[in-house]
Every structure is written in structure tokens, then in C-alpha cells.
Amino acid sequence: MKKSSKHLAFGASMLALSILPATAYDSVTDARLASPEPQNWLQFRGNYAGWGYSPLARINAKNVSKLSVAWVYSTGQLEGHQSPPIVNNGLMFVTSPGNQVIALDAKTGAELWRYQHQVPEELMQLHPTNRGVALYGDKVYFGTTDAKLIALDAATGKEAWQVPVADWKSGYYITLAPLAAEGKILVGSSGGELGVRGFVAAFDASTGKEAWRTFTIPAPGEPGGDSWPADSYQRGGGSTWVSGSYDPKTRTTYWGTGNAAPWMPDTRPGDNLYANSVIALDIETGKLKGFHQYHQADAWDWDEVSTPMLIDYQREGKTISGLVHAGRDGYLWLLERKPESIGYVASWPFVRQDVFTSVDPKSGRPTYDPSKTPGTGKTVHFCPSLWGGKDWVPEAYNPQTKLLYVPANNNLCSELTGEKVSYKAGKLYIGVALSNILTNVRMDDKALDHVGEVQAWDLSTGKQVWTHKYKEMNWGPLLTTGGDLVFGGGTNDRKFHAFNAKTGDMLWDFPTNSGVTGVPSTFEIDGEQYVAVQSGWGVDAQRMQGAFDAVLPHKTVVPQGGAIWVFKLPKQG
Of 247, 406, 411, 420, which residue is least crowded by CB atoms under 10 Å? Predict the structure, then answer.
């Protein structure tokens, strides 16, 4: 074990136990990212389109019930473990809370190296989690909670460079997995509850030099700038905290944006572009090519940071180059990718939603029930809850079944009361009492039988094909495979599940050490397929559990502590 004085000078440390020669690492190229090999899982959702799909089929609906543990690795960290195990030809890279990157032998679980970045003690970690790395060339990239982007040598874990992305003292912090494309590493930041001005920024993969930065909240005189009053754009939110997707054919990257700040819309009259939107950016320049705002003048904390998936779907006999997004606002959105714009195609609620009274059939702009719109000094009950019909947790799309799989929370509502707020750098800037947020879930009286769901949708018909119901919440990102399977955790019983992708039948489940809110991945080594996921309850899943416990007669304790779980089929005897 050794510590670098350079790392300590920058408030970071590296623990290096490298046993891997540098020549053994397979460089990750643009071509590989655009067309990833089936045996690998090279990025956050497996491919640039964001599908969360693998064609691997050795583990399938017929044999998944035999799945068993291949190995387990404890991260040594508490809080929410959400990043996918990223695998490049037998090498696994995982991040955890605590600004930690771990490299492991994907077949055995043996640790190769570990890097940990130390953040300032006074930093308030509002969401202590990390959603993964990006691989590019011979480096591994990740963001930190003090808003830095760090590049590591993939073979040794040695730091190549680090650059500040934003000022953590003003509330900026990074939780997303970076996006690697065309020689650039793209990141955004969290901090919408702290009054930041959201952005997407690109950095040179070799040097860390900033190539461009596009703000999600426009300034006066810029397109959309008139949708904000006075100087409010400077602290308008619209943060980007889930990885973007990328279309190599058009060289366009798509990013979802978060809530406007502060929460109450009467403090910032206007549509508040480009909060709660999807934006299309030119990969070379960062120029805004198009946008669609899912709901204007957000009042419900419905971040729409989950980047829509690039799916070509059929509608009325036509093939649409689509963007598909299951929104936190409770609507399933079908959009169209155009050369210099984003078009609206269709939308419908996938959970109980009582705020929208209509959606314009041409523009997709919703109309609201004013009695369901919170304001300063105004108490309002609305559905879905502020955690939404689906929060950040990714959907999955299977091109074989042609079904979209959505991890949803249904029959769940909130009650919010707005209050006056003043801005102070680095402090909460929401305009709602924290106690109101942490005790704000309400079950819909019309349907008390369940909350969590896994849904399957046929996009061409708009019909729900199957639904699996959980008694309480679902915070489980989904993975689907060529073996007609859907994997996901998300429940407070610690279990990781496998469903039949065509019917929704649960075929297998396994109790892990904690709750599973990690993004699953799958890979293959020496002819054996593995399924991997992190278990580690925390962040908003834990906060929702606390809100449940405040209103339900029973209390549920979900054990803390992170671990990487890897499963495979037993060898044939």
C-alpha cells in the first residue's frame, strides 16, 4: 500500500495494489463504444443508446433459477451504491460512495487496485453516492462530490490528471458517470437543491482541458432567457446528474435536466427553460440543437434527468427515430430525434397522475390543475409524489421483445407547502421545509395494495403488456438480456430479482446484504456469463423508507453496507 504526496496535497489518496501489467489493458476506442462487444459492459447503460440491454443469452429464462453466487466483494462504504460494474475484457471497474474507484478481476473478484479521493471535511454531501466510471483509451474517468473530474491509468490506478469542474462551495457536486465520446469526457453536476446553474461540460480525454460548457439555464439575451425573471437564471437549478446518451451518426448527445430552483414557481414566473427537459447538444461544440420541456414551471421537484433512450419505434405505420423517457412526472414520453430539433410524438400516464389536465397533441405541453400546483404559503396534495412515477433509476429496452421495461412507483402521492426562501451559496435553496419533504409520502386512498412496480410497454401500440407489483417501493434500475430476462432490485427486502421478459413471471430472487439500488450489468468470460450488481441502501431510497415509516404502523430496517455481488450458473458436472 502506498500514498502519493501529490494526492494528499490535493486532498486525495490512492491505494494501489496493482498486479496488472500495462500492456494487458485493451484500449477503449470510439468504435468499441459505438458497437460494444457482447461479452463486455463498457459504459453506464451498456451502449450509447442507453438501452440497458445485453444480447448474452447463456443465462436465460429456462435456467436462471439455478443462478448462484460467483463472488462477493465488500466496498467498505455505507450509503447508496448505485454504479454499474463496468467490464472490459475481464477487468471490472466500480465506484462507491466515498469517492472510491475499485478495479477487480471480473472472474474471481480479486482486487487489482483501489483509488480514493478525499473531499474537504466541511463539504455537505447531500447525495453521497456515485453512479460510475467512463472508459476511454487507457484511462478510467470519474467525478467527485467536490466537483472534480479525475482520470486514472486503467492498468495501475495511478492518477493521470484531475481538474475542477465547478465550485463545490457554491453547491456543485458530481454523482453521475461521465460520458466518453469523440475524444471528450462529458460531465454535468448535481446541486439543484442548492441553487446552482446547471450545465454540461466537455473535457479533452488526454489532457483534461475544457473543450466547451453549455448551461442548461439560459442567460438574458440567449434563446429561452426570457423564461426567467431578472437575474434568477444564475441560481436556477436545471442540474444534470445522470449520464447522457449519444448518437454517433448525427454526433448529437442528449441530456436530461433537473428541477428549477427554488421549488415554488411563484418565485420564478415563466416556463423556466431548460429545466425539466431533454436537450440535444452538438458533441464538437456543445451548441444547443434542440430541446423538449416535459413540464414547464415545475412545482413538484420532478427532475427529468433520466436521459431518454434512443429507440427507433413504430407509430401509425411509420418508423420514428425516437427518444423514449419514462418521466418523474408520471408520463411516458415518445419524442423524435430530428437534425436540429426534438419533436413531440405522444405521451400517456404510466402511474396515477392528477396534475396534468391535458397535453397538447402537437407540442406536448401539459396544462395543470391549479389546485394541484404548490406555491408559497399554499399546501397542495398531488400524485405522483415528489420522487415521481420513476426517479433517476434507468428503464431498459429489449430489441428482441421490442418492449420497454420501467421501474415505477404507483399510488404514491405528496403534500407540500411552500415557504419563503433566500439564497445563500452552498445552502439549501428549495422553499419547502425539510421536515415537510422527509415525511411527505401519502398512499393514494383509492389503491392501497401496492406501490412498487416493474412494467413492460409495447411502444408501437402504447399498451402495457405486463406488470409485476411490489407491496412497497421500487428503486431498482433494470437490465434486460437476450436470454428473455429482466433483472432488477429496488425493494426493501434486500432482494435482487429476475423476471421473464415476455410474461413478467418472477423466475429467481436472491437476498443480498442490503437493498439493491445499483445499476446491474452482465458480461462473459471464458464462455461463462455473469450478472453483477451493487447492493447498498441509502440516499433517496432510504429517505423514502423514512417517509413511509413516519406514516405506517411498522418500521422497516434495511441493513447498511455496500457489496458487489456477481452471479453465474453452476458448471455442468
Answer: 420
**For the chain, what is the largest distance between any 2 Cα atoms, rounded to a whole number of angstroms?**
72
In sequence order, what E strands does 389-431 have?
Answer: 396-398, 403-409, 412-417
**Residues 522, 479: contact at Cβ < 8 Å?**
yes
Q: Hey, what's the torsion of the CAs at 80, 109, 244, 79, to 10 degrees?
A: 10
Fold of 5-568: Methanol Dehydrogenase; Chain A (2.140.10)
Q: Where are the domains of the chain?
A: 5-568
Residue 260 C-alpha cell reads as 428549477
Q: Model confidence over 431-486: pLDDT tens digits?
A: 998 777 666 666 655 556 889 999 999 999 999 999 999 998 999 999 999 999 99
Beta carbons of 529 and 512 less than 8 angstroms apart:
no
- Listed in sequence order, the residues at least 6 apart from 569 whose beta carbon sits closer than 8 Å to its beta carbon are 58, 59, 63, 66, 67, 68, 528, 529
pTM attached to this predicted model: 0.95
Eight-class DSSP state of 145: T
Hey, what's the cell of 92? 471490472
Block residue for cell numbers 436545471: 238
Q: Which three cell numbers stand for residue 561?
A: 453496507
Per-residue model confidence as pLDDT tens digits over 493-545: 999 999 999 999 999 999 999 999 999 999 999 999 999 999 999 999 999 99
Residue 420's identity, in one-letter code, is K
Question: Which of 144, 147, 197 is CA-nearest to residue 168?
Answer: 147
Q: Give the contacts of 317 (CB within 8 A, at least 6 positions apart).
A: none
Read off the pLDDT of residues 370-405 as tens digits, 9 standing for 90 and up. 999 999 999 999 999 999 999 999 999 999 999 999
Report cis status (omega within 30 of 0) of the bond before 384.
yes
Rounded to whole angstroms, the Cα distance separating 221 from 225 reads 6
Q: Are 302 and 328 in contact (CB under 8 A)?
A: yes
